[in-house]
Each structure stands twice: as structure tokens, then as C-alpha cells.
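Re: export button greyed out
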Amino acid sequence: MAETALSGISVLDISEGISGPYCAKMLASFGADVIKIEKPVRGDVSRAVGPFPRDVPHLEKSALFLYLNTGKKSVTLNLHNAEGAGIFRELIKTTDVLVENYAPGVIKSLGFDYEALSRLNPKLVMTSITAFGQTGPYRDFKATSIIEYSLSGHQYINGEPDREPLQGAGPQPEYQGGLHGFLATLIALYSREDTGLGQWLDVSMQECMAGFHQFTITRYTYGGLIKQRNGNRYESDHPISIYPCKDGYVAVSASARPQQEQLYTLIGMPELIQDPRFLTPQDRINNADVFDELLAPWLKERTKEELFHTLSEWRIPCAPVADPADLLHDPHYKARQFWSEIEHPQAGRLTYPGPPFRMSETPWQVSRAPLLGEHNQEVYCGRLGHSSEDLVRLKEQGII
Amino acid sequence: MTEKAVLDGIRMLDLSRVWSGPMAVRMLADMGAEVILIDAPQARVMTPEYITMMKQLRVGGRHFPYFPDGDPGDEPWNRQGTYNDFNRNKLGITLNLTSPEGKELFKRLAKISDVVVENFTPRVMKNFGLDYAVLREINPGIIMISLPGYGMNGPYRDYPAYGTTLEQHAGFSSVMGYPDSGPYRTQSTYVDPVASVNAASAVMLALWHRRRTGKGQYIDLAQVEAGITLLGEVILDYSMNGRLPQRLGNRHAFMSPHGCYRCKGEDAWVTIAVESDEEWKAFCGATGSVAWSKDKRFANQLSRWHNQDELDKLVQAWTILHGHHEAMRILQAAGIAAGAVLNAKELMEDSHLKARGYFIEQYHPSVGIRPYPGFPVKFSRSLPQYRRPAPRVDEHTDYVFSGLLGMTKDEIAALKEKQVIGNKPPGI
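Workaround output, generated via the alternate export path:
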């Protein structure tokens, strides 16, 4: 077995849903020992969300849960119970990282705010991921992903100018809370090597997403331009868009002059190179509809695969608009061994997306998500020294 | 005297371009790494014709501010908003890596650096003779990360790729769009910054490992793959059920009302998400307990979901009476998830982001004081440091070549002469 980057780092994941679990999944994937603490009986809320096989709900078969909790151990613990809280405090003493995503103030009401926990363990890194952060006027606002898209400037710019603004592709703000939490946790662990001290990390999904603009902010701060919705087009040149083709859609992104000239030639209209309608960015924007009409019939005769390869070979950036079926059958990801086939005792064998990046010395490692409370014995008896009788009693009392 | 930052003493060479790599490196620069940003000589050059053309660009009947406030100034290459945004806290030099002298100087810098970052297509560093195998010989502890579109191997490795093609290839566009439309791309080319945060994390993992073992390593990040990992449940649903995602517009698999509703004012919108029946009751109370809210078609979560077309019209009949901020505040006060749809100006003026100090102000000699997003996470101890604005072309030539490499003024002048480095576009 290869070395792992985070071997010896122990993590408690008391988060639910997407953001915190994704953060802890990334830590687990690079070698941290992650114990997920779940509510007795029902577990993480994502266990109830699905999608499920044939849409039949089952605690151990939610695709969302299975994906976001690979590589973790699961224990059940009622943090609202005094004895449960005591067990949690015991665990905290030998924990490096705590990941939580309660609404602001909840963790304090449980008595587990950073101040209290750092007294038990000054080296603790506590990663708190919330919709709007721990301070400020929106602190207690409620949010789901569509609200985050709106308050981070993304909703406004997506979609058609004459229609309602569009949300992004699923719960990306939640994923970004998790991804930024992961980065910040690594920075805090690195810092701890020098200072010997942990710290509290305040991750706001609104801020993660507000940082994900290329031009939206600077066009305003550098020139007063408020970016408008522009459909699938690009504001300062053309063609950079999505087009229908024979069997679906392709993205074409000819943003540089040589790429545009290549494209005109490829579609059998080299005369467009000299055409005054397409000479400058201004011409191409003004005549975008005209160009698209010229391009459409050529695209319609060709499949997305064909177009992807042909345009790419001509050095014109292009990609098929891929769906999951396209991705799973794509030879590129197969050649790169991107997919992991993971067997799970309840959910069976499924295909999971693989590493977001490959490290030569400390590769990503992946193993299945845990069953609810699967590691109670290992953690409570093995790590904390409880007896098997204790375990039975704790279970009967609903503490685990 | 600034306090010691987390990455003080770490030196990085940044060969990356545009967004994905530059923003990854900026995050580490904010944490104290010394970053030498290496541009090709003339890379930022703009010809007078180009400057005139871009200065006159109009989009949607409006002047397009390709240059700050429409003015290219004396040094337009130092006045680019995104460049200045993604390259703060970095030192800037130019170096021609196709020349033997340029390669040699890069190797000397690699010898005294900790991390090299690049986002070219895979053949570029190899053609320079500066791939990881070479750099490791010079500096065994070096960490190198490549973040090309498709990764360092596989059939598409040499294909050109942009953010404006990769998000479609990664699967995001298949999920995004109106229910009656084709796929949409984000206007923020989402895969680029996704690659940034992953890349910064990968470098932190490698630095951590090196600190413990002394070993460097190589990281291959395919931007398209970093994207796919954020569609986990969609991929698993296909694997589980053979089901392909539907484009839901602004709707949700089980919440309703869930959408983007028109408000009073020009292009003003609010998004609303109601999940449970308790929230629905609160929503009805907050919006004035009008008669339709008691309609049995909307009595529970499932019936609301099935009658969304009707429900959405009624919700919008309420939102249209209110400004978008006002609608958000009324609903949030009742515990309902609601958000004003902010445009760029409103985002910059958002009271919450302001209260949290999200935007920082920085002085840059070519563009004056402007606001920029700060580091996106708040640390109680490891505070980010905003020490200098993005470099002007060749600004740190003396520090790097004389200070770090010990070259004389004459040697540096000779490099300029031979265009191995170059501080100004030719003819200017």
C-alpha cells in the first residue's frame, strides 16, 4: 500500500448533507482516519435523500450518502444527551480535526463551540461550514443552493436575457463549502506544525461562490459594467457557445483569431476569413446570429463525437455536452482509470468518480461508505475502552 | 513588519496562465508563499491596432470596458482586471523558455524553489525540456503540479481545452438549463475555479508530506476530472438506475415552491426554497395568508410539488409587489430560505459581505485603488496577508535575477538585449 499524505491525522465528522461530508471525504481520501458521528437510528440526513436504487428509500443505499462518505468510519452518538456529549468530549481530546456544518450558534448551544473544545484540546482544528458564515447580518438566514447562487452573483448572469435567471448544476455551493473547507483545513494543519496550536475555520458558502467569478466582478470594479445574462454566448467574442448537432450538443470555443480562421476553413467557408462581418470581435458579436445560421447545417450533419475529434485536431477548442452515460463510456477516463468500482454490502457494486487530482507519492485511496454505526465497537471499545456491556446499555438508552 | 504567515519560506514558480492556475497560486500567495510569476516576454503585449479595436468594443449597446474605465493608459498590459485580480501577492518576471539561456535560468530558479505550477497542454513543458523528470534531477524535493484540461495521459491529452468547453465535457451543462431548453453553460466557466481550489489543496498535501518525509512529488490534475467529481450523486444515479439527469430549470427534486421569481423593479428577482409543511405555513403567514394559500392543491409537500406550475404563478403574484431585497427580508424573517438575485454591483455592495470584510482594497500603481475578493475562508489564526498588488510586466527582474541568482547588472542587460527577458513590448 502506498503512503498516504494524512496518515496519523484523526478527524471527527459531525456534519450532515453535502458540504461538511465532502470536506471530510477529501480528508479521508488522502489518508486521514475519519470517524463520522451520526444520529442514532436515522443517521446523516443524506441517507434519506437519495437517489435510491429504483427510487426505494433505504438508509444504506442513498447515492448521495454513498458518494460523500467514502473512506469513513461511522459511529452513532446522541450529542444532545449528557452521556453522549461526554463521550464526544473524550473523543475530541485525541482528535486533530472536527468538521461541522450546524447553523451558526447550534454548536455553542451544545457546548461544543471552538472556545470550549480548544480548552480540551488546544491543537484542535475546527472547520465550520455554513451558508453565510458565523458573523454578519445574514448569519441566521436560511439557504439552499439556489439561494447561494443568487447571493453570490451567479444566478443573475446565467440563462437568457429575456427569461428568469438560472441556477447552476445542482448543489455546487454545498460542494464548494466542502472543497474550501478541505483546503482551509490543510492550511491549518500545516500552520499547526509551527505554532503547535489549532484554530477555528469559518467557511461561508456565499463567499466561496462569490470568489468564483472571472469577469463579473472586475468588469464592474474596473469599468462599471454590470454583467448581463447572455444565454450560452460569450460577451466579448464569437463563436464561444453551445450548438445543437446531429445527436446532441457541442460546445465550440473559437476565441482566438487563428481558431476562427481554422473553423471557417473547416466548415468549407474560407471566404469568411476576409468577410467584413467577421473581422473583429465587434463584427463577430454584431453578426453572431448570421454566423450561427451559416454554421448550423454543418453541425447538424455531424455527431458530437465526430465534431469533438475533428475540431480538436484542427486546434479549435470543442467538447461534446456530455451526460453521465457519455462520461462512463468515454475512452479517455477509462484509459486514465478515473472510475472506481466500489462494492458495498447493501448497495452493491457501483461506479464512483475517482480522484480530482493524482499525486505520485501519496495517491488518493477510496473505499466504501460505512453502514450506520458500523464502527461503534471499534471506536467505543477499541479507542475509548468501553466494555461490550457498556455498548449494549448505551444502545438501549438511545445514546448510540 | 508583517507577522509570519503560514507559507513563509516557501517559494513557488508560477508558469500558469489565465485563471485556474493563477487563482490556485494566489491562494497560496495569500498564505505567505513567495511566488515568482513567469510570463513569456511579449506575452502581455498588445499592438496599437488591438488596443484601438478593444477600446471601441460595444456590447449590448453599451461601451465594453475592456480597459479600466475605457482607458488603456500608457501601459495597458498592466491594467487588466483579471490579471491583477488573480496575481496579487506575486513577483513578476519575464523569461523566454524556448531559449537556452531562458531554460538555464529557469533551472537555477527551480533549484532554489519548492513548488512549480503550470497549466499548459502536456507537450509544452516537455518541449521546453523542463518537465518533472528534469526538474527532479535538479531539485529532488521539488513539488510540481500540472493542471491541463484533460490531464497528462489518455487519448485527449493534447486536445485544446478552455473553461468554456470543459464544463460541458464534465457533465455540468447536461444538468443545467430550462426544462424546455437545451443545455446551458455557466457564465462563470465553473471548471476553472474548481481546478484552482483542488490544485491549491493538492499543493498543501504535497507540502505537508514533504515536511514529514523530505520527499517532493508530481501532481497531475485534469481539470475536466476535478469537475466530474462534483457531480457524484448524478454519476451514481446513472450507475444505479441507468437514469440520466433532467434539466429542472430552477426547480428541485422535492422542494416547492422552489424557483426564481420576478420582483418589483428592473430585472429584479428573488429565489425561494420551501421544503417542509412547517416552512410552507410560515411562507403563507409571511405573504399575508391570502386565500389561495389554503387551497388543498398546496396542502402538503407532495401536492405542492405536483401543482408547481399553478403555485409558481401565485408566488410571483406576491413577489412582484416587492423589491428583491425586501422580499428576501420578509421571507427570511419568517425562517424561509430566500435570496435576492444580486448583480455585480449589488454583490459589491452586499451588506453581509461588507460586514465580514470579504472584499479587500488594494492599490496598484497602474489602476489605483480597487476592491478585490479576499481569501474566501476566515481563519482565526492563519490570517491571509495582502502584501502587494499584481506585478507590472517585469517589475521584479532585479530582485529575482540579481537578488536571488546573484547576476550583475551587465548580465541582466545582456539578457534583455537577447530578448531572453523583456520589460517592454518592441517598438514602444
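The CA atoms of residues 184 and 277 of chain B lie 32 Å apart. The button fix ships in the next patch.
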